[in-house]
Specification:
Elements (H helix, E strand, L loop, with lengths): L2 E6 L2 E8 L2 E6 L16 H12 L15 H11 L7 E2 H8 L3 H9 L12 E2 L14 H14 L5
Parallel strand pairs: 4-5
Antiparallel strand pairs: 1-2, 2-3
Helix pairs in contact: 3-4
């Protein structure tokens, strides 16, 4: 599958796609990961990522292919319903799905397309919780940045 690394306000990320469909967002791509730049990336993916990082309220309307269990698919569908600038707790999502908060957290951790499938909008009842398997460090700083970015007022 094609892939490329791009520089963003949260650092270098890798984008994976198949045809016009987004298949992955890697927040920590290895240095040897594909070339840098958006050449070859489908224009809708490139344009929507650029628009999001300029103004989070634009959101995403991309075809995505998410490989996971039925439960993970249900969690990821719930994540896509959370509007930019809002959050839900792991417990709230768990109650909607008849599950437990830890299972929701594990599905969030397994999310192959963070940012586009906004697992960063899921927080603990008493704080941020984790992000992509991290409970401190760079990925948690990315979660803070994304939430802050989404809570800013749109530019006129």
């Amino acid at each position: 599958m094609p892939q490329t690394r791009i520089d963003t306000p949260i650092g270098r990320i890798a984008i994976h796609w198949d045809g016009e469909t987004l298949t992955g967002v890697d927040l920590d791509p290895p240095a040897t990961h594909a070339h840098l730049g958006a050449e070859g990336m489908p224009s809708a993916i490139r344009l929507q990522l650029r628009a999001y990082f300029e103004q989070a309220s634009t959101g995403f309307d991309l075809p995505v292919s998410l490989v996971g269990t039925d439960f993970q698919q249900r969690v990821w569908a719930e994540l896509r319903r959370i509007p930019a600038g809002e959050t839900r707790t792991y417990g709230e999502i768990a109650r909607r799905l008849g599950s437990g908060p830890r299972a929701v957290g594990q599905a969030c951790r397994a999310n192959p397309c963070p940012i586009v499938v906004p697992c960063h909008r899921v927080v603990a009842v008493d704080g941020l919780g984790g992000f992509s398997g991290d409970t401190n460090g760079r990925k948690l700083a990315v979660k803070r940045w994304l939430l802050g970015h989404e809570s800013r007022k749109p530019r006129p």
